[in-house]
Amino acid sequence: MNNIITDKEIVELYLAREEKASTYCAQKYSARLHRLASSLLLDSRDAEECVNDTFLKAWNAIPPNKPEHLFPFLARICRCTAVDIIRRNKAEKRDCLVVELTREMEECIPASSGDTEVPEETLKTLMNDFLGTLSKEKRIIFVRHYWFGESISEISERYGFSESKVKTTLHRTREKLRKYIEKKGATK
Asked: Which pLDDT tens digit goes with each residue over 111-135?
């Protein structure tokens, strides 16, 4: 692999429907995506399936999408794929941390069904704006837990915080998010 191939060049290869786009993409991002999938899924085979599905979904999504930042685009696909795998596994009576994380976030974010549907773009903008209001420390704790699926003990160990501080920060941040969304008019 050409070690200096850029994300922009990879995206251009996808747009040209060149199969080597997937090869370069996998060589560049497999390890990072596997860490993300493994942090969300209990089974290494599920994590491997998730990463493979991520590359297939990226192939199908580019075009029409033309991501400016390739890894966040892939990470979002990977995370959504992991959640789908968790839901499938939950239907088979297996539990996972993300099921609890999703439940916690459902308390803050309005439902996206029926008459109260809030467009995904609106929620994305609200979430990004909300994250911008947080201190760096609170934002890191929140994102590490709810995006990367890290446990309270992992965050505590990584940053030298007590587990109690991490739990309290997460609880208060969820409450702040709920109030922020309500204030902006996107209520449940």
From this structure: 544 445 556 677 778 888 888 899 9
Beta carbons within 10 angstroms of residue 74's beta carbon:
25
Rg of the chain taking only CA atoms, in angstroms: 18
Q: Is the peptide bond before 119 cis (omega within 30 degrees of 0)?
A: no
| C-alpha to C-alpha distance for 16 and 38, rounded to whole angstroms | 31
What CATH number does the domain containing 179 carry? Answer: 1.10.10.10
* Residue whose structure tokens are 């060049």: 9
HEC per residue, the chain = CCCCCCHHHHHHHHHCCCCHHHHHHHHHHHHHHHHHHHHHCCCHHHHHHHHHHHHHHHHHHCCCCCCCCHHHHHHHHHHHHHHHHHHHHHHCCCCCHHHHHHHHHHCCCCCCCHHHCCCHHHHHHHHHHHHHHCCHHHHHHHHHHHCCCCCHHHHHHHHCCCHHHHHHHHHHHHHHHHHHHHHCCCCC
Tokens of 163: 């587990």
Domain boundary among 40, 65, 95: 95
Residue 176 belongs to domain spanning: 100-183
- The answer to whether residues 177 and 119 belong to one domain is yes
Q: Name the token pair of 63.
A: 């075009």
pTM for the model stands at 0.56
